Amino acid sequence: MTQQNNEQFRIFTEKLKTVEERSTALNDIKNLLAYKPASEAVPTIRNIGISKILHCLNETDKIEQLSLTCEVLKLCFEKFDTGDVIKTYTSHIMYLLRHEKDCVRRLAIDEVCKVVTTDPSLLPIPQYIDLYVAIGQMVADQDLGVANKAVLITSNLPAEAYPKVLEEMKIALEGNSSSRCNAFEVIVNISTKSYDILEMCVAHGYFDFMVTELQTDDILYQMNILELLSQLAIKPHGITFLVKQGALQKLSELIMDLQNNPFRGLLTPGYMKFFGCIAHCYPKEIFQKYPALLELLFNALESDDLTILPVALDTLGFIGTTWEGKLSLVALGSKYTQTIQNIGVIIKNSRVEIKVRALHCMSNLICTQKDPKAKTEEVDQRITLMTREWFRSLSKQPGPMEVLFDICKNPFLDIQLAGLTLLDAVCQHQWGQEMVAQVAGFVEYLLDRSVDNAKQSNEAKYDIVKRLTQSSAFDSNIITRLQTYVEQGPFYSETTLQVAMEEE
């Protein structure tokens, strides 16, 4: 800025002392800074300071003037490099973070968030620990935007900040359920990063408090806690801790008591998701040690309750995605066999949304390539034999592939895509490819580009055809047609070819 502009800035800030001139002066500062490059604006702001602008926050009850003051401060802050505002005006930022007005707190926390999400090392922990403590306490802020930013910031601090921050953040546990959930979210977010931080959170009593809070009558609160605990449980050090501390056993006991809970229908999906996440990673151990999960899951799969059945289908499919999950399920014997048969009935007879969930469940149970081991190991022969029998249970008469063919031709896109997803899973097996080859018209349907117009359907069919080009289930003529389809791409059409030729 020129010396003249420096003087203008000084004059405008002096006018802020006069109530009648305040709004005009704020607008003058705003206009003066708006188009000035940082190289000109920052020296003047540093020289004259922002104290007089800050005073305006407490000297007005007018929302318009308060908003305008925040706009001016934000404009000033934007001229500085990331972190420099906090370094230059640390005490001012601390003041703004504790201000009674939501918009003021949002202004300050945005500056801190900018630093933490860019480079936390810009604000070294020893020097700025009080700032991070203040942010940690703000996870209980009444303003949702401020609280969410506080959760984000506190979840991404250097590990050395947490001894102090965790101690001071306990204030959030004295607030309402929303405040406590925000604190729990931070605890889970940081505990998933390392065992050392997890132990620190345990020492501060957060996890004991979380499990105890599951006894509450607040259903939504319980479900939020379960969702958070499931995020921790899928980490090796997380599940080890939960088992060691007896948390899983306590949760298993709560599941057994669900039958007597009047809110059983609302709570069951949350408990299924929680144990489903763990069983996805450790199916054998969970099935052996926590049979209450299996009873909960299988009872839900036999239920007509539309708040429970979709989650049960998703959970079973998620558990059965891995090879170990499939082997653990089949080891359950007749109970699981009956469940597979029930899924076949659901696919054929249920309403659209349930049918789609059941198709995706069956897809995950039959699919072998979602397991990370599929990239380096051959599929266990037992899995090949099991999945064939599971697919056959879809229908005895007509055959399962005929039923799937009809589903793939369904005019409703969501059902059609779910059917194609199952077909792709089936075609990962030699037995599936042979079944496709035996159904009259199935290959022709896949190669017929006039059937589907939806982008997703074209892409799904293309992936299946590409897979079938490697199959030994078809004669050379069919393989040639499949390869031609793949070479032409998923969106080829005769119209496209004709236009291209005319342009030449």
Indicate the topology:
Blueprint: H1 3-15, H2 22-34, H3 38-48, H4 51-55, H5 63-78, H6 84-88, H7 90-97, H8 102-118, H9 125-137, H10 144-154, H11 162-169, H12 177-191, H13 195-203, H14 206-213, H15 219-233, H16 236-244, H17 247-256, H18 264-281, H19 283-289, H20 291-301, H21 309-319, H22 323-330, H23 334-349, H24 352-366, H25 381-392, H26 400-408, H27 413-426, H28 430-438, H29 442-447, H30 455-468, H31 476-488, H32 494-503
Question: Please, could you describe this protein's structure?
Answer:
The chain has 504 residues and is mainly alpha-helical. 71% of the residues lie in helices and 0% in strands. The chain is built from 32 helices and no strands. The longest helix is centred in the middle third of the chain and has 18 residues, at 264-281. It is elongated and about 90 Å long. The two termini are 60 Å apart. Keywords: Proteasome.
Q: In a nutshell, what does this entry contain?
A:
The chain has helices at 3-15, 22-34, 38-48, 51-55, 63-78, 84-88, 90-97, 102-118, 125-137, 144-154, 162-169, 177-191, 195-203, 206-213, 219-233, 236-244, 247-256, 264-281, 283-289, 291-301, 309-319, 323-330, 334-349, 352-366, 381-392, 400-408, 413-426, 430-438, 442-447, 455-468, 476-488, 494-503.
